[in-house]
Amino acid sequence: MALIVQKFGGTSVADVDRIRHVAQRVVDTQKAGNDVVVVVSAMAGETDRLVGLTRSFGAEANPREYDVVVSTGEQQTIGLLAMAIQELGVPARSFTGSQVRIHTDEAHARARIASIDTERIRKELARGWVVVVPGFQGIDSEGDITTLGRGGSDTSAVAVAAALGADVCEILTDVAGVFTSDPNVVPNARKLDRISYEEMLEMASLGAKVLQIRSVKFGKRYGIPIHVRSTFSTDEGTWVVPEDEIMESLVVSGVTYNRNEAKVTMFGVPDRPGVATQVFAPISEAGVVIDMIVQNVSTQGLTDITFTVPRGDLEKALPIVRGVADEIGAAGVTQDSSIAKVSVVGLGMRDHAGVAGQMFRALAEEGINIQMISTSEIKISVVIEEKYTELACRTLHDAFGLGLDELATAEP
Ligand code: ASP
Ligand code: MG
Asked: SS3 of 12, please?
């Protein structure tokens, strides 16, 4: 008998019919001889609606009350799902984040999970009940309601699985698994059977939306296998597992893109110690997160610094950057929001030379100019003109053989 945590996302519990479908799935899992803890999101669109309501009182509505309001979406679905399971003749109980003591820090709207008391959950499981708990919500040390940030139910689910030492955390969603690329952009993208936590972390931070990045970190730290699969089919999805369980690693397992960044260049920057802090400290103090940074070799004591920021933060960052440019005597500042970051990710890159060369050649053959490059051990990202996003993804997907029937694997 296994202990399985099943998490259902917003589209899986979007209405009463779907909640009934989810209930059947949970009951089938339990009847197959497993203990089941279910973690649910709010019904699709509900959290957006609740956030909208709080905005009636200003964009910066009181964070404590914001959490009181937006956490209610999950409270609806836990109760409804418990009813639907009971309707099938199986005992089930819902508990709020406070009842099962999902402890978080005090950071309202972006709280981090500190610990979960499993006593109550275990007690109910031992009685043969299905336990249904809400994603996204917790309580702080005062007992006040907190929420984990948008998309946080994935993290709740993996954290619950880790706290219980579950055999698997299933993330049931509206897609069949983790794909080699976004199927909307790359028509021959394929579902991966397995992917390592490391690759999934890179892919999630590079724009693949299937899992919240914090959930992958939890899975990795506690060694919880995460099985991403469809709510609407019983097919196997994608297993996110430790690296040593990947028998044959692909040189490249995924191609991702991100069109949410903008590029800023400060040119003619005096090249002396301390300049980088002068430029970047005020930007990060304003809460703007910088992604890629490139600095040129200086000629005649002057250099250029180019970096990317979230597109939505460009307006906030520009006046700061211009102010700093004046202060340090830089020649000027330019910006470009029509860019995209396209990346290839793969464990096999570690021991295969030439991946970068192959990537750049494939892009060059399509006439796509590379504006910036950044790399990590298992990832290469380039910034290109936004209008080439789809072409670049398809080109790289083909270049690394991801669309073929037999995925090209690296030698073990
Ligand atoms: N309901 C929350 C949201 O929409 C949390 C989640 O679904 O993961 O962001
Ligand atoms: Mg989600």
From this structure: helix
